[in-house]
Design goal:
Helix content: under 10%
Number of strands: 25
Strand content: 35-45%
Number of helices: 0
Structural class: mainly beta
Keywords: Membrane, Transmembrane, Transmembrane helix
Largest sheet: 12 strands, parallel
Shape: elongated
Protein name: Autotransporter outer membrane beta-barrel domain-containing protein
Distance between the termini: 65 Å
Length: about 375
């Protein structure tokens, strides 16, 4: 039986922002998969928004990327013995990147980079959701062969068009937002993985990077494009009652993370009189991360945490440099993103780790780094 082997690419277009992809949902009360055919045993649901087209003379602004669709899977009993090197359960939604703006010359205005499409549910507020309510037996073997991986990632913003011989360069597009990610396993049973980086449960939401502003070149006056703002990530929630066992370096029992998108850098001013480099853009803050656990966790391997929960703010975009022929000024940076709230609640069971630098619980909220201002020319 082939289970959930869907992969969709959602369309984008030139000079416009695309709508949200459709909703995809599967629900099965009891499911046992033991077919030996490769990829026939796993749950694999992925959607990727198409990238926006680049700008042109008629439509100088780059097109926005298409949004990834919601990905939801609900199961009762579930047994999966995954083929080597393959995650057992994969739910991924990725927003398409924005198209780049068209370049301009003389006083023709270039286009701004298109905004990256948001990953996940868009206006519906959905995202990526996996739920298992019955008896679960999941096993994997191989590098990065996760037991369950659930991820929503916003697309990156498009690059602003450059400008030659007068005028201003185009701004970078904003990064798309990641959406909420939820993994709930409320029944009984276990997830077992063998291999480096093979987390039993991996849940991640990331905002897309802001696009870089376009450069201005050989001009009297004008400025480089501003960077696009980083996309916001969604909240990440893991509620697990299963026993988790991993064997391999960097293979955590639970890895839950929300990462803000970094701001785009400003465009440079090159070989100009009286020109300014573009300003870097602000980053987005990390989202809330909540892990609630009540089963046993056993890991064997260096840096194989029992529970890793982290929220990271994005890095601010750096200002564009000014390498002019005279009286030109570099751009300024902007604000970095703050770390979000991180909560870990253990209601029972034990956590045992057997490797170097392998904390039983590692919970962290950290702000992003600031960008740099650039030199004047």
């Amino acid at each position: 039986m082939v289970e959930g082997g869907s992969k969709r690419t959602l369309a984008a277009a030139s000079g416009v922002f695309l709508g949200i992809g459709g909703f995809c949902s599967f629900s099965v009360i009891a499911l046992i998969m033991q077919t030996p055919t490769a990829l026939a045993q796993v749950i694999n649901q992925q959607s990727t928004g198409a990238s926006g087209d680049g700008g042109n003379v008629l439509h100088p602004t780059g097109g926005g990327g298409g949004d990834g669709a919601n990905e939801t899977a609900t199961r009762g009993d579930l047994t999966i013995a995954a083929p080597p090197g393959t995650p057992a359960v994969t739910l991924l939604s990725t927003g398409g990147s924005g198209g780049g703006g068209a370049d301009g010359a003389l006083f023709f205005s270039p286009g701004d980079g298109g905004a990256g499409g948001g990953g996940g549910g868009g206006a519906l507020g959905g995202g990526v959701n996996f739920t298992a309510t019955g008896a679960v037996s999941i096993s994997t073997n191989g590098t990065n062969a996760y037991g369950v991986v659930a991820s929503s990632v916003g697309g990156g913003g498009g690059t602003g068009g450059s400008q030659y011989l007068g005028g201003n360069a185009g701004d970078g597009g904003g990064g798309g937002a990641g959406r909420a990610v939820s993994v709930t396993a409320s029944g009984s049973g276990a997830i077992s993985t063998i291999g480096s980086g093979s987390h039993a449960i991996l849940a991640v939401s990331k905002g897309g990077l802001g696009g870089t502003g376009g450069d201005i070149d050989v001009s009297l006056g004008g400025g480089g494009g501003r960077g696009g703002q980083g996309g916001a990530p969604g909240a990440v929630n893991v509620n697990n009652a299963l026993n988790l066992g991993t064997s391999g370096s960097g293979a955590a029992g639970v890895w839950a993370q929300s990462v803000g998108g970094g701001g785009g850098g400003g465009g440079a001013a090159l070989a100009c009189f009286f020109c300014d480099g573009g300003n870097g853009a602000a980053a987005s803050s990390g989202g809330a991360v909540v892990v609630t656990h009540s089963g046993d966790i056993t890991t064997q391997g260096g840096s194989a945490f029992g529970i890793f929960a982290q929220s990271i703010g994005g890095f601010a975009g750096s200002g564009g440099g000014a390498f002019g022929l005279g009286l030109s000024f570099g751009g300024n940076s902007s604000s970095a993103g703050a770390g979000g709230d991180v909560t870990v609640q253990v209601n029972g069971g034990s956590i045992q780790t057997g490797g170097v630098a392998a904390s039983a619980i590692y919970a962290q909220s950290v702000g992003g780094g600031g960008g740099s201002g650039r030199r004047d020319g």
